Each structure stands twice: as C-alpha cells, then as structure tokens.
Amino acid sequence: MMTITFDEFIFDRRWRRRALIAAIIWFSGCLLYGTPATLFAALLRTLTPALQLQNVAGSFWNGTAAQVFWQQNDQVIALGSVEWHLRPWSLLWLHPSAHIVANYGEQFFDARVQLSPLGTLTLDKTSGALPASILSYWAPLPARGQIAFKLDRVEIARAQLRVLQGALYWQQAQWQWNSHWLALGDYRCELQMPTAQQIRCALQGQGKLSIDGDVNVNVSERSWALQTRIKIEPTLPEDFRQGLQVMLAAQPDAQGQLVVKRSGRW
Q1: Beta bridge pairs of residue 115
Q2: pLDDT tens track for 32-42
Q3: How far apart are CA 186 and CA 211, in angstroms?
Q4: Are the beta carbons of 231 and 256 closer than 8 angstroms?
Q5: What is the pLDDT of residues 236-259, one digit of tens each?
Q6: By three-state DSSP, how is residue 200 classified?
Q7: Measured distance CA(183)–CA(24) in Å, rounded
C-alpha cells in the first residue's frame, strides 16, 4: 500500500492551490487582454456617475481618455486627460485597484485607488493641484493661487469619511479687496482624524498675513471650532486690516496678533 507523508500532502495541496491561482490569472488575462478600454470607462462611470470620459483608447488594463469632465448639476469641471493602469492581481483578490493620473495644464491628480467587495474606497499616496479660482464653482470666493494636496491615505465607506491623513496647501494665496488683488502668503493645513467623525486641521501660514492655529470639525454633530493667531503686516491696506478684525471679532494683543476663537454649526 502506497503511503503519503504529511510533507507530501501539504506540498500537494499547495501545488494544487498555486496551479488553480495560475489558471485563474491566465484565464482572466486571456479574457480581458483584448477587452477595450471602454469597459473600464463604463465601470468607472458606474461608480462615479458624475464622470464623463471622451475619446477613450487602449485596453482594459492600460487605457487613456483624452478628455474627462466632472458634471454636477449645471456645473462642468474639465479634468483634462486621464491615464489608468489596472493591477491584475487585485481582481483575483476581489479588491480592484488602479493607478490613475489626470493632467490639465497646471492642474493634475495622481492616486492609487482601491475598491473593496464591501464598497470601501481607499486612496493611497494621492497628490494633486488645481487653481484656487475653481472654488468659485461652489462659493463666490475672490481667491487666487494654487490649491495643492498630498494625502497619505483616505478611506470612504458607506459615503462616510473613515480615514484622512495628509496635508492641504494654498500656495501664492491672493485675495481680492475692492479692485485690487492682495498677496497674502503660503498656507498649510495638516489633516488628521483623531477619532471617528472628527477632523483636525493644524493650520500654519507665512506671509503678509500669517496664521498659526487649529480647526476642528465634528461631522456627526455638524459643528466646527477655530482657534488661531493671526498677524497682519502693516503693508496691507488699512481698510482690509480693519475689515478683517471686524469679520473675526478680534482685537490685536500686545504682540499685534489677532487671537481668534470661533465656533459654529452648519
């Protein structure tokens, strides 16, 4: 009677498992190798209906879209050209992930995106930049400069933000006052989520209007709190400095800084 040792049995199971995985990968690769990039674009539009891709080319694994737009209600934002690289192994483990890059002049977006079977969207090593004027699509802010971000990790589950770690930047910030554009400085917001539903921004800025403080947002309670010190250079127009003091309801201290403590709900 032929006997099989334990080591041979384990090796046989491992070999069969590896052979099965290799067969699945080979079958999936053959199935999708000739699939056009329009399939990936269709899946992406299903996940994010606001995205509109035009002039799609390439394959399911590696494709491009010459023009991409984000449409929300009556607002349309041009994102430029988009390129994606899908990782085959991610489909095998039911966690599809891709490297996505978008470019439109000085505006860009670069992220590694992953979607879990439960619908959790994860973004790793995400970076990008866009003109500050794009904020006017949502609010009438007379702002110029560049909004940049470097996010180490972002997780969104069931339409709720679960993890947020990274930084936001407002570079070469300008603000329109009367008919003039005032150069303010460069600003950084270090983002963290100490607990669930709470977002903290460690705010720092250098320039003619310097800032050092914190902004805390409680999403579940729909509340926010601002505590910061602001120093305004005398070279800025006097009516601007006075208007800022009135808006912030703060008076200069002995060092000439505005101590601001504000909170509210939305």
Answers
A1: 121
A2: 556 788 877 88
A3: 10
A4: yes
A5: 999 999 999 998 888 888 888 999
A6: strand
A7: 58
CA 40 from centroid of its chain's CA atoms: 21
Residue indicated by tokens 């996010």: 151
Q: Are 38 and 100 in contact (CB under 8 A)?
A: no
* Residue 170 vs residues 62, 135, 143, 180, 248: alpha-carbon distances, Å: 33, 12, 10, 19, 20
CB 134 within 8 A of CB 119: no
Can you give the pTM of this predicted structure?
Answer: 0.79
Residues 6+ apart with CB under 8 A from 38: 56
CA–CA dist 175, 168 (Å, integer):
18
Q: Which residue has the tokens 């990936």?
A: 40
CA atoms within 13 A on the CB side of 3: 3
Query: What is d(CA 158, CA 77) in angstroms, rounded to the nearest whole number?
Result: 25
Query: Under the phi-then-psi rule, with left for phi > 0, alpha for psi from -120 to 50, and beta for the rest, what region is 152?
Result: alpha
Tokens encoding 78: 């041009």
Reading phi first (left if > 0) and then psi (alpha if -120 to 50, else beta), residue 165 is in beta
Can you tell me the distance from the alpha carbon of 77 to that of 93, in angstroms, rounded to the nearest whole number? 34
Q: Structure tokens of 240?
A: 């601007």
Q: What is the widest separation between alpha-carbon atoms in the chain? A: 100
